[in-house]
Amino acid sequence: MDDRAVRDRRRALRRGHVSEYVAALYLMLKGYRIVAFRYRTKLGEVDIIARKRNLAVFVEVKARSDEISAVDAVSQTAQRRIKAASDIWLSRQADYAVLSQRYDIIAVLPGRLPRHFADAF
């Protein structure tokens, strides 16, 4: 990899991490409690896991220039990986039997508030 590719990769990672923090703050302002951040398993990863009462919300965060490209960026393969990771997380919760679950997407857009797509997949 040349220096420019390395710089671009680092910039993209930094943008992604900042977007995840923005999305987490946005969720907290909406009354959610963040219980896990960048939850990783061998089967997949979830950017943010939040709870609101008996609802576990598994959130994929996408930083894009528009809402449509953010939602479209979450492929079927990504959805399967997120669901696999969420199954593992749920199985490790003492109260998992009473938890409802939902899969959301938060689009972090330049110069605008994040857009929350509840029950996106």
Automatic annotation (TrEMBL):
GO molecular function: nucleic acid binding
Annotated TM spans: none
InterPro entries assigned to the protein according to its UniProt record, in alphabetical order: Restrct_endonuc-II-like, tRNA_endonuc-like_dom_sf, UPF0102_YraN-like
Matching SUPFAM superfamilies: Restriction endonuclease-like (SSF52980)
Family (UniProt): Belongs to the UPF0102 family.
Name of protein: UPF0102 protein FZ934_18075
Species of origin: Rhizobium grahamii
